[in-house]
Amino acid sequence: EQQSRIWAVVVLLGLLSVVMLARLIGLAVQHKKTVSMDRDVEQLLQRLKNVTEQRDSVNSQQCCPSGWDKFGMKCYRISNVLGSWNKSREFCFSQGADLVVVDSKEKMDFISRYDSYFWFGATDVAGEGMWRWVDGTVLSLDNPSWSTGGPQGGEGKNCLLRAYELNQFKWTDESCDTITLGLCEQNVIK
Predict the structure, then answer these.
(1) By C-alpha distance, which of 59, 63, 133 is closest to 103?
(2) Keywords in UniProt for this one (predicted)?
(3) How far apart (Å, rounded) are the C-alpha atoms in residues 30 and 118?
(4) What is the spatial order of strands in the sheet that 159-165 belongs to?
(5) For residue 151, what pLDDT is reported?
(6) Phi/psi-derived region of residue 136, left when phi > 0, alpha when psi is between -120 and 50, beta in every other case
(7) What is the pLDDT of residues 69-128, one digit of tens each?
(8) What integer best gives the mean pLDDT of the chain?
(9) Taking the CB of the first residue and of the last residue of the chain, which one, N or C, has fewer CB atoms within 10 A?
(10) Spatial contact of 124 and 160, defined as CB atoms under 8 Å apart
């Protein structure tokens, strides 16, 4: 009986040793995987840095035509021809551009550098109160750039104009036949 107890303790200690050895091996493998993952993450971060540098290099090589201002991947210019919304859009087309579409706060901040009235590329001619940019995207009526809380004009005022209100430029709906300038936007030249 004494011998069977000793034998049971030996077997139990042997099993415990095998379990501990397996756990140590598991920890070693896990550590190796962690080190390998850290190395992989480091390589991916280096690749991202290289791609970002290449992108920035390509962007800096792209430019705008003379007389145009670059912002991001677009070029901007106030037309030098007074005209209606359609006439301003035709001028932009003749320059390989279109009237500007405002799709970010950053772009709106950039546009604020222009100190004049001008046409934007938005209209509700297709459906009263359904404002759309010339690229087809919807223009929100609750955008804070609108003067007096949104468009006010009704059927006679269907084009988006930048106007001066309370010491700042705001958007207003205006008759598309109003004579003013347009702000043109085009992609940068590669």
Answers:
(1) 133
(2) Membrane, Transmembrane, Transmembrane helix
(3) 64
(4) 132-133, 118-123, 159-165, 168-174
(5) 81
(6) left
(7) 999 999 999 998 899 999 999 999 999 999 999 999 999 999 988 988 999 999 998 888
(8) 85
(9) N
(10) no
Which amino acid type is present at position 64? C
The answer to whether 158 and 124 have CB atoms below 8 angstroms apart is yes
User: What residue spans of 62-141 are helical by DSSP H?
Assistant: 85-94, 105-111
Place of tokens 């140590």: 24
CA dihedral sign of residues 148, 144, 158, 102: positive
| pLDDT(53) > 90 | no
Query: Got the DSSP string for 13-31?
Result: HHHHHHHHHHHHHHHHHHH
* Residue in this structure with the two tokens 């390989």, named with its chain if needed: 96
Q: CB-based contacts of 89: which residues, under 8 Å, 6+ apart?
A: 98, 99, 119, 121, 134, 182
Length of the chain: 190
Q: What is the pLDDT of residues 152-178, one digit of tens each?
A: 777 689 999 998 776 778 899 999 999
